[in-house]
Amino acid sequence: MEFEKENKLIFQGLVKEYGKKRVIDGLDGKIADSRITSLIGPNGAGKSTLLSILSRLLKQDGGEVSFMDRSLPDYKSNELAKKLSILKQSNQTDVKLTVKDLVAFGRFPYSKGRMTDADWQKVREAIVFSDLEDLTDAYIDELSGGQRQRAFISMIIAQDTEYILLDEPLNNLDMKHSVHVMKTLRRLVDELGKTIVIVIHEINFAAQYSDHIIAMKDGKIRYSDEVNNIIRPEILKEIFGIEFDIIEKNQKKICNYFNL
Amino acid sequence: MKQGRKVIWLVALLVVSILLFMMYNTGNNLDYVLSRRGIRLATMAIVGVSVAFSAVIFQTITNNRILTPSIMGYESIFILFQTLIVFFYGDKAFKVISQQENFFYAVLLMLGFSVFMYFLIFGRQQKNIFYLLLMGMVMGTLFNTLSQFLHVVIDPNEFSIVQNFMFVSFAKMNVKLLGIAAITLMGTLVLTLRYLKYLDVIALGKDHAINLGLDYNKLIRTFMLIIALLVSVSTALVGPITFLGILVTNLTYELFKTNKHAHTVWLCSAVSCICLIAGQFFVEHILSFSTTVSIVINFVGGLYFMYLIWSSRKKIS
């Protein structure tokens, strides 16, 4: 299949336990390169845990993650920070920072706090890319949730990594901002060739904007395939436990799950 | 710029308070008075800087603006150590063991405590920093209670020796310790300055810090050791004074809206020195030694703390 042209991020036999509860149970898989992969599934399926393990925020209890033919723990943290970035869902901070300062942190792996002209250039590009020029000097604690989320995504863009992992980037965003964020991600993949993995709850955003879907339930991967092979009533019903009605429009699928 | 003007005001205030402290009502025996006051001033400067640095670092790694290292029980372990020495050697204690040796052992003990706590928390299982705080509080209470038990058991005369360590006082004039404390502080500061840039990133939170390529656990360990060194400097010189940290850091954050720790630590040091010097001046000349500087600072700090809680409550509602 086309999406399997190359896989640099591969995981095998991943296990994570909290106390006696196994939250993920023997996951094998790979992330398609230069694609948007959505992790979907009900609450507690282990999506965020998988994302945290792939990005070294969490240590697994078993199994291995291999990134560019090397095991993840073999990387120095700073080296990895230039190749792979992660943004978790809660980004509350009481630090007094402007948007520009925040985005500049994305250059930390390169600059170590001493920003060069080239670094500032990257910061400006990232701000333009995420459409935040008007808010460059605004303090992040004074922004709306959507603007703040975009500021953090802008920081990730400035970090300029080949791989970008995002945990529920649409959390608390209204529809307009959600679409805006997803379009930005789409452009990162289409124009700059990045690889993006997101955890997402709204099935229609996954269906519209991603290329590949990994569907999880009860700590296991049930399906991992191209979007059109996953967005089917019987598969979605198996994953989420409710009825789905799939409407096709402009070759994209829309899922209706209300009042069925 | 407005911030720049504030910095000038701060420095001016520091200079004025130093001059006032040194020059006010000197009397005729100028040499004697100035040298005595000079020693007190040096003590306050060393203590002010170490309190400011330790509090700023501690608040950043815990992401919490109302904590100081005193919650970790560093000072309790110091008091317990002093109590134990007196318990075993009696009133001969500080003839057997010199001030410098005492300081040296206390520093070692606090560093050891830091490492022990770190491995207890981050060793096999990955616990977060709040477990560290909780354990620190529990251990601190344990050490306090042990000390209190020994205080009851020992001879009242010996207790008065221990008491000397339990209350903050700048009148102790520990000239022997002053040099060694200054060297320890200098060394620690040189080490700290190299790490300050990482604090800016750690302030964003653990996940962001790891994402941006920091070796988070190793840095936390380093900062815990730095804090232990700084706390032992201030505690050995004047007693348990790190509570001052909560007042001075919050004043600094209130006055200067900066996120660069390379600036914050120095501004906070200046604020902290001003508080100490002004407090001491107040005690010496207005209250004529009828109370101690810690009571003045506690009183002002307590009022300010209530204001902090009040204003954050208003912000939420």
From TrEMBL, chain A:
The keyword NADP does not apply. Keywords: ATP-binding, Cell membrane, Ion transport, Iron, Iron transport, Membrane, Nucleotide-binding, Transport. Residues 9-243 form the ABC transporter domain. It is a peripheral membrane protein. It is found in: Cell membrane. GO terms for biological process: iron ion transport. One of its GO terms (cellular component) is plasma membrane. One of its GO terms (molecular function) is ATP hydrolysis activity. InterPro entries: AAA+_ATPase, ABC_transporter-like_ATP-bd, ABC_transporter-like_CS, P-loop_NTPase, Siderophore_ABC-ATPase. This is ATP-binding cassette domain-containing protein.
From TrEMBL, chain B:
SUPFAM superfamilies: ABC transporter involved in vitamin B12 uptake, BtuC. Keywords: Cell membrane, Membrane, Transmembrane, Transmembrane helix, Transport. GO terms for biological process: siderophore-iron import into cell. The chain crosses the membrane at residues 6-26, 38-59, 71-90, 102-123, 129-154, 175-196, 223-253, 265-283, 289-310. It is found in: Cell membrane. Pfam families: FecCD (PF01032). The keyword Transport applies. This is Iron ABC transporter permease.
